Amino acid sequence: MAETWTVLKVLRWTADYFREKGIESGRRDAEVLLADTLGLDRVGLYLHFDRPLSADELAAYRRLVARRAQREPLQYILGETEFWSLPLRVTPEVLIPRADTEVLVEEALKKVTGAVGILDVGTGSGAIAIALAHELPEARVEAVDISPAALVLAEENSGRNGVTERIHFRRADLYQLQGGPYDLVVANPPYIPATDMDELMPEVRDHEPHLALRGGDADGLAAYRTLATAAASLLVPGGWLLVEVGIGQAEAVQRLFAEAGLDDCYLRDDYAGIPRVVGGRKS
Ligand SMILES: C[S@@+](CC[C@H](N)C(=O)[O-])C[C@H]1O[C@@H](n2cnc3c(N)ncnc32)[C@H](O)[C@@H]1O
């Protein structure tokens, strides 16, 4: 007689298997993937621990488990994530938006209100631009990226969140930015130094786009050098440049901003206490 695989048995087996593969959040990931396969939420799984899986359900679930075992991020497997409590589709063409980046949105919302003009540099999935357009109904947002595939996805995400009318997506190279002047320029640019790329977790190194990760120059700070210099022409007087930075980069970027003549340069920590956002204002 064929073995019966119940919800609980499948979860236990998968959690062990993921642990062997070095995935720390094994049980949780197993629950998320099984819930997705069965069209339940995670609480629903707990209410149906004894439910047997059909052969088709088991086959579909196994396909997802095999992908996760290759260290593919859950968000790419599900094709979905949340940023600023807004639903976003994500594919391997774009960086998975991180909770840390919400700190950049929080800072931006302290700096501007009303009918302002905003530029989001390196928009990726559109996360920052969409969150700002959502919170600032009178703002006009321009969102640029070098990746055409990212721009297509970002525009789709803006439609899904009802802000397409107020975001203009266009292809542009951050090293040759034109336009504005804007009241606010935000950016979460690629910032990982090339020499650190091999150290990244397999989920990041082997699955997220290197175009979104690897920063230029030996220290990874090339984008910040360019943005600090470009701020003079991109911003209105009194306008703010706000950027996300990697661990250990904040003070160097703050110095770059000050050397480029920006005023009131400051750092903001993320919720883990790591300096994560650098801001500066055009005088
Ligand atoms: C770290 S990701 C940030 C994505 C998104 N803003 C977020 O916070 O989740 C950096 C983005 O910059 C884009 N990018 C890389 N090089 C670029 C360049 N030279 N000009 C414009 N965008 C660039 C990448 O395609 C990627 O979408």
UniProtKB/TrEMBL annotation:
It catalyses: L-glutaminyl-[peptide chain release factor] + S-adenosyl-L-methionine = N(5)-methyl-L-glutaminyl-[peptide chain release factor] + S-adenosyl-L-homocysteine + H(+). It is an enzyme of class 2 (transferase). Keywords: Methyltransferase, S-adenosyl-L-methionine, Transferase. InterPro entries: DNA_methylase_N6_adenine_CS, HemK-like, N5-glutamine_MTase, PrmC_N, RF_methyltr_PrmC, SAM-dependent_MTases_sf, Small_mtfrase_dom. S-adenosyl-L-methionine binds at residues 122-126, 145, 188. The keyword Signal does not apply. The keyword Transcription does not apply. Residues 10-79 form the Release factor glutamine methyltransferase N-terminal domain. It comes from the Bacteria. GO terms for molecular function: nucleic acid binding; peptide chain release factor N(5)-glutamine methyltransferase activity. One of its GO terms (biological process) is methylation. Its EC number is 2.1.1.297. Residues 101-192 form the Methyltransferase small domain. Substrate binds at residues 188-191. Belongs to the protein N5-glutamine methyltransferase family. PrmC subfamily. Methylates the class 1 translation termination release factors RF1/PrfA and RF2/PrfB on the glutamine residue of the universally conserved GGQ motif. HAMAP family: RF_methyltr_PrmC. This is Release factor glutamine methyltransferase. It comes from Trichloromonas acetexigens.
